[in-house]
Write a structure and sequence with these properties.
This protein is an alpha/beta fold. It contains 15 helices and 14 strands. The strands form two sheets. The protein has a five-stranded mixed beta barrel with strand order 10-13-12-11-14, surrounded by five helices. A four-stranded mixed β-sheet has the order 3-1-2-4. α7 packs across α14 and α9 packs parallel to α13. The two termini are 37 Å apart.
Amino acid sequence: MAGNQQRSRATVAAHALSPEQAVDRLEALHADAVAALRAALARFVADGTPPDGAERARFRYPELRLTWRPSGPPPFTRRAWAKLSAPGIYATTVTQPAAFRAYLLQQLRPLVEEFGAVLAVRPSGQEIPYPYVLDAGDELFQGQVTPGELARRFPAPILSAVGDEVADGLWQAPDGAPMPLALFDAVRVDYSLRRLVHYTGTDWRAVQPWILLTNYQRYVDQFVRWSVAELARPDGQYDRLVLPGGGVVRRGDDPEDVERKVQDAPWDRFQMPAYHLCPAEGDAGVSIVNIGVGPANAKNITDHLAVLRPHCWLMIGHCGGLRQSQTIGDYVLAHGYLRRDRILDDLVPPEVPVPALAEVQVALQQAAARVTGEHGEALKRRLRTGTVVTYDDRNWELRWSNERRRINLSRAIAVDMESGTLAAQGYRLRVPYGTLLCVSDKPLHGEIKLPGAASAFYQRAVGEHLAIGLATLDILRGDLGALHSRKLRSFDEPPFR
């Protein structure tokens, strides 16, 4: 019996795909499915002929399946991802495999080489919703047919099929079903890719793995100026800046053309405009997103950014200082959050601690010292570490009599409306996170944000604050293994990061 099992496993292994072959196969199946769906859509618009059952069977995402049948103890690895803890079959559907090729190979190679996992690729039973294969210029084919007509004859988005049950620990495997290979399946990823285009005004492919999130447009303006200067550096690593609305500033562009492109970018048409500084190669690029104000926006954008599996997101924005010893322009490095935003209470209950990540905290402090030139006690006077309270109510001050004791017990040193949400989302969706805020007013001590003082503060503080955020990302790039640590992973995580 044992000999038969060994021969069976040897036969399977002989026909197994290498990681590169598996991704090639994913790309081929996805491209074929998209081409078939687009051709059927075009024919239906032209002459009203709908797809038959056999044709519709081609409109399916590819499935990546991994089988692990260990013959001994699993290999030891300190890596927090691309590891297997239970024998069996794992699977996920995949969209846009060409765009995710580097990520997929990064996950699959250790699983095959170290664990001896066996890979297979085949069409899945999950249909591709028709809107996810349409480009911006041909959506609904300029009104020749209605969305209702298309939805009756083609696969359409079904909200009940899109969810975060795996990420939220709610997924339960039906009898005989494979275990999840990744946090997000293909239809969930496609849903978010389209939302990213809608909210940011840029192609999702332009989003970089290092992300700055802010709640003030002035940070974006400063980022654009810095990006243009980087593109002008002869030895710079970046080759283009992607703007909201689809404009692109490229290395070597005439300065007058650069200024015109930046000025013409219709950033105000989009709810959360984004700018992306992209390298010629590699994954050192940086994106900045103006998420606006409030926890709803913070949760919304990170729900969608998470499917891209970024290396890190950092919040750089303004806050109200809660201590008399603070000065406007001081920095707050969040090491804890009093979450009064309420938006994630059902998904990450308030009693679940959202820890500060040591690697990010150290990098933020080192970057602050590097940019300001201050160290020791001088740096401590400007950068204070403590708890940030995040509210869902901008006028929380009007409930001061109710909130005073809670703020006091938490020892909070700053207040804002986004940081706690972004940290909780990073914790929930396994994306490293951090927060560095700048004190723009002191609501408890009579130092409110008046127009004149605010303008002077912004002019002075924004450039330095942004520089600290960018320097932090430079530091974190140097040790990805430590950044993607076990702190964010549960005991029954899917193998993929």
